[in-house]
Amino acid sequence: MLLGKTRKIGRRIEDIEIGEKLTLTEKIEDKDLLLYLGLTNDNNPLFIQHDFAAKTQYGKPIVPSIMLTGIITSAISKYLPGPGSHITKQIISFPTPTYHYSIVEFTFEIKEIIEQLNSIVITVLAQNDQNEIVVEGEFHVTPPIIEK
Predict the structure, then answer these.
(1) Which pLDDT score is estimated for 46?
(2) What is the pTM of this model?
(3) Are the C-beta atoms of residues 121 and 109 closer than 8 Å to each other?
């Protein structure tokens, strides 16, 4: 936690260019799933109970979609455009389930800049280690405005 410390602000809209990309790779571990489930009090057995999930169409436990969304929003807050940015709209789909222990590669790309609204559009595509698309999305983000 950064109590009492000054944090560097993210990039302003004039410092961002269409076509910029960011790629992050995440391995979904049990500790991450248990932390998510504990924080949200989400007790869906599909997410953690192997015997229950084996009886479903998925065959084994899956990662909650909102957890994948959290990885995306975290990357936007940390890197693109970074601290001080705010997501104002998101359109997201999860065409293929993500399973425990998957390695997921997230690719972010600046698709549009709307300077008069101080807004950017970021597309996100995430693929698992079998090159299946697990997340497709579009995020409208307000980059930080630096007060002078």
Answers:
(1) 93
(2) 0.89
(3) no
